[in-house]
Amino acid sequence: MSVTVFIRYEIDPFQKEAFRSYCENWGRIIPACGGHLVGYWLPHEGTNYEAFGLISFADMAAYERYRLRLKTDHEGAENFAFAQSGRFILKEERTFLSPVEGTRERRPAGGAP
């Protein structure tokens, strides 16, 4: 069974570009520490303060191993410090999800993306 960590962020909308940099940094760090980075999403339309990140793992044990690696990763520590000093993340919530088989990556009929 796989598990995906769904992270909901409330960000300072005036520091969206700082948050973008923060996300781009995780693009290198998360895979190096053992996570499958599904991606990060910034506000586009609608609310201007909600952003999301998704990271998948084979199971909760894989997630725990990732967390241990992350705690000792120099770049990870720097990125956490960047967010703390920049104060662009106002709130962060994590939810752990498991997929409903047969519903992921379903494409429209005709093969359109």
Describe this structure in words.
By secondary structure, the protein is α+β, with helices and mostly antiparallel strands. It has a single domain, classed as 2-Layer Sandwich (Alpha-Beta Plaits). It has 3 helices and 4 strands; from the N terminus they run E-H-E-E-H-H-E. The chain has helices at residues 16-32, 60-72, 74-86, and strands at residues 3-11, 36-41, 50-57, 89-97. Strands 2-3-1-4 form a 4-stranded antiparallel beta sheet. Helix 1 (16-32) packs antiparallel against helix 3 (74-86). It is globular, with a radius of gyration of 15 Å. The protein starts with a strand and ends in a 16-residue tail after the last strand. The model has no long low-confidence stretch (mean pLDDT 94).
What's the gyration radius in Å? 15 Å
Q: Kindly state the number of beta strands.
A: 4
User: Structural class, from helix and strand content?
Assistant: alpha+beta
Quickly count the helices.
Answer: 3
**Which outline best applies?**
globular
Profile the largest sheet. 4 strands, antiparallel
Reported CATH architecture: 2-Layer Sandwich
What gap, in angstroms, lies between the N and C termini? 27 Å
Number of domains: 1
> Numbering strands along the chain, what is their spatial order in the largest sheet?
2-3-1-4
The CATH topology: Alpha-Beta Plaits
Q: Secondary-structure element order, as H and E?
A: EHEEHHE
CATH class: Alpha Beta
Layout of secondary structure:
Blueprint: E1 3-11, H1 16-32, E2 36-41, E3 50-57, H2 60-72, H3 74-86, E4 89-97
Antiparallel strand pairs: 1-3, 1-4, 2-3
Helix pairs in contact: 1-3
